[in-house]
Amino acid sequence: MVQLSFTLPMPHSKVAEGAAAQLAGKMGMDPALVVHARPMGPDFTFFVVYGRVSHLVDTDKVEVVERDYPLLTPKEANAAIKRALRRRLVVVGGCIGTDAHTVGIDAILNIKGFAGEKGLEYYRELKVVNLGAQVSVPQLVEAARAEKADAVLVSQVVTQRDAHLLNTREMSAAFREAYPSDKRPLLVVGGPRFDETMAGELGVDRVFSRGTTPGEVASYLVHRLTAAPQKGSA
């Protein structure tokens, strides 16, 4: 049994409920049972439908990016940075292009953090430069060079016409043009519509999707930047 929720552009009525059941049936649910229907204003209705499906899932063909580094506490991360770098690890972040949604980058960088975890500003051995929203790619590259950034974090929420993919490719190309390969900062992007398996295709070192916590990002940065002598070797 599976549960499906969706909205139809129809006022709430018996006809709308029948249309919802019909749509679910066409998507392979048999039988499809409408268990919840609620008006969403005068012209839309929200539905929850239960039903049985006969499709099979082959888990051997599922492609995911498994975490290949240990999760560190802030104390452990600070100690690793101090021991390996003997200086603060510099992180520059922001939202590029026309994206004005800073909730994602702020959740990772700001000290208040996300999901009960403090953001990267909380880490004593991290220097965090948050450029905010609508940062152009040249501005991002300039800031990274000026701050001698070890890592660049980019958040993208706006996804119309695959803007997040276009912006990321433009960003990665600009950094490769501006830096020798052994000096380029680590490039990390994140957002709710990114596919974590696309890092290589997008020209970045890591892609994080929805639900990522500051601790996961901090642990990744420490793993990559304290385990190897060179920056950004993809």
Poorly predicted runs are 229-234
Helix percentage range: 25-40%
CATH-level-2 architecture of the largest domain: 3-Layer(aba) Sandwich
How many helical stretches?
7
Structural class of the helices, strands and pairings?
A: alpha/beta
Strand order of the largest sheet: 5-4-6-7-8
* Beta-strand content estimate: 15-25%
Determine the N-to-C terminus distance.
Answer: 42 Å
SSE ordering? EHEEHEHEHEHEHEH
Task: Provide tags for this entry.
cobalamin binding, KamE_N, 2 domains, alpha/beta, 7 helices, three-stranded antiparallel sheet, Defensin A-like, metal ion binding, Rossmann fold, 234 residues, five-stranded parallel sheet, single chain, Cobalamin-bd
Write the layout of secondary structure elements.
Layout: E1 2-8, H1 14-26, E2 32-39, E3 45-51, H2 74-85, E4 89-94, H3 103-109, E5 126-130, H4 137-147, E6 151-155, H5 163-178, E7 186-190, H6 199-202, E8 206-208, H7 214-227
Helix pairs in contact: 2-7, 4-5
